[in-house]
Amino acid sequence: MAEGATLYLHLDHRAVHDAKVACDRLFGRGAFLGEIIWAPGNGGRGARGFSVTHQTILLYARAAGERGQVVYNAADPMLREPFAETSLAMHFKHRDEDGRLYRERVLGGKAYRYYADEGRRLGSVWTDIPGMVANTPLRREGTGYPTQKPERLLERIVRASSAPGATVADLMCGSGTTLVAAARLGRRFVGGDRSQLAFATARERLDREGIAYSVLEVPEALRDGAEP
């Protein structure tokens, strides 16, 4: 990881707790930046207990002392969400010379103006990005890879924690969604996977998108057609 980088570790409820302990040992507990709860709108509906309808993404800096250096593009429109209707009705009562609705707050003797049309900073619970389920517009993204993630999810992550020209790495790249998102947003990318299916799917997807890349190394297990 480079200075200022953020590690996003995406897991389900069966593995996230063990991974959190392992990452705390590796990076230090002070490097933990938080977690994102992604609720993609699907998941099993169990009869015994609460249905699991979310996934967890852990965020880590490279080290505890670098928390203040991590890249976070807070002003990016994809990291904003609309204000609640109740908040708009209660607090946004002023209009500027262009007719834009706003509220003003004074904090520490300094006045701050918040515009309704800019929304508020995105929180850590994401419910606005649906998962890859059948019979939705996301089918056009589908590759058939079993754990494929929607492009919009990775676009948000890439935009949040990198600048154009930066390098984005996904070493368990699966169907290649991160690589496609990075290329579209003007980032360089490095991808890897130990699965023959992932390797073939990601390459086919990059070719279909017209994205240039170089293959640095093909593991022997993939060259001879064996699935690790």
UniProtKB/TrEMBL annotation:
Its EC number is 2.1.1.-. GO terms for molecular function: DNA binding; N-methyltransferase activity. Belongs to the N(4)/N(6)-methyltransferase family. The lineage of its organism: Bacteria, Pseudomonadati, Myxococcota, Polyangia, Polyangiales. The keyword Disulfide bond does not apply. One of its GO terms (biological process) is methylation. Signal peptide: none annotated. Residues 2-196 form the DNA methylase N-4/N-6 domain. Keywords: Methyltransferase, Transferase. It comes from the Bacteria. The keyword Transferase applies. This is Methyltransferase.
